[in-house]
Amino acid sequence: xxxxALLLHLGDENEPDEAEADRPLRLAIVGRPNVGKSTLVNRLxxxxxxxxxxxxxxxxxxxxxxxxxxxxxxxxxxxxxLRRKAKVEEALEKLxxxxxxxxxxxxxxxxxxxxxxxxxxxxxxxxxxxxxxxxRALIVVVNKWDxxxxxxxxxxDLRHVLDHQLADARGVTVLPLSAETGQGVE
Length: 186
Ligand code: GDP
Hints:
The chain has helices spanning 2-10, 37-47, 89-105, 122-133, 151-165, and strands at residues 25-30, 55-56, 63-69, 72-78, 109-115, 137-143, 173-176. The chain is of the alpha/beta class.
């Protein structure tokens, strides 16, 4: 299936090029178009201005940003903005899938951003499954939380979907926030 096909492309590219302790945490931000990845990255970078990037990534599909949070070096692997180059839906789908796989290869922790105003879709589940199968730490960010009135039931719904459709993700961190207002981001 799709996940297996994607895994074939992942390969084994975790060669330790720097001493473990000195390496920055590689944190990828992935998710479907329009969920707010760009807004979140901008918000994160705005929190602490020790930004030395953005630098061009090793591939054309993602951007690495050297970042630092409370003395901890973090390399953000950002897949946002790619959709703007896509002209048709099919190309967009391919591009974002490819970008996601590329980002995953190079990250230890992955933030899957979903839109609180939309239902958790098959594509979200596939990405989450891929992240977990690859042994990456998964954080599900539920963005646009500012638009949700019944927050308690929205969170319960999402947990229900994760627990029932993605057994591996039971107990995974689900983080509601608003990239736009900054609420919950820190
Ligand atoms: P990307 O395609 O995942 O990078 O998504 P963008 O960052 O470009 O955001 C898509 C749209 O959602 C934009 O119109 C943003 O202003 C909006 N947006 C992003 N984050 C939030 C949020 O926390 N709350 C609300 N209300 N809108 C948001």
